[in-house]
Specification:
mainly alpha, 0% strand, 167 residues
């Protein structure tokens, strides 16, 4: 293949090759000195953002696990403390209940004892108060039954005879 000027198409033209090489070298230098550092910097920033995001996410997960463990520990401690407080309150309530019940029983026993003493005292008082009336009424009744009045000596003799027969 030749051209009209007598030149073969595949024949290299040296000055174009040299200019192409110089242009390629200049382009290579500009790319390596200007664009490649910027591309490396952008790549490193993106890589750091991505890797840093993963690392921050992992740190956040670890912190969340730590906080959750601490939370569960505190909840467990709070439940234990609540159980201790509830049990102590229950024991204190039972102790107070027992104290009040014992006090009430002692007071009731004292009141019953006092009531019995008062009743015995009143019984003896009533018996001593009624004794002369009973003697007078029984002597009057005996006199009505016999149709005559009975004297003190005769009355005592009848009572002593009656009591002798009973014993």
């Amino acid at each position: 293949m030749t051209l009209a000027s007598g030149y073969f198409v595949l024949t290299p033209i040296w000055h174009e090759i040299v200019i192409g090489m110089v242009a390629f070298g200049a382009l290579y230098l500009v790319m390596t000195k200007v664009f490649m550092p910027r591309l490396e910097k952008v790549y490193a920033e993106r890589h750091d953002r991505i890797e840093g995001g993963f690392e921050r996410a992992e740190q956040a997960r670890a912190e969340a696990r730590r906080v959750q463990t601490e939370y569960r520990t505190r909840i467990g401690e709070a439940r234990d403390e609540a159980t201790r407080i509830r049990d102590a309150a229950r024991e204190e309530g039972q102790r107070r209940h027992d104290e009040v019940l014992a006090g009430a029983r002692e007071e009731a026993a004292g009141m019953v004892s006092q009531g019995r003493e008062e009743l015995a005292s009143q019984r003896s008082s009533v018996a001593s108060d009624l004794q002369p009336d009973v003697a007078r009424l029984s002597r009057r009744l005996a006199g009505r039954m016999l149709g005559r009045e009975i004297g003190d000596d005769e009355y005592r003799q009848v009572v002593d005879d009656y009591l002798g027969q009973r014993v």
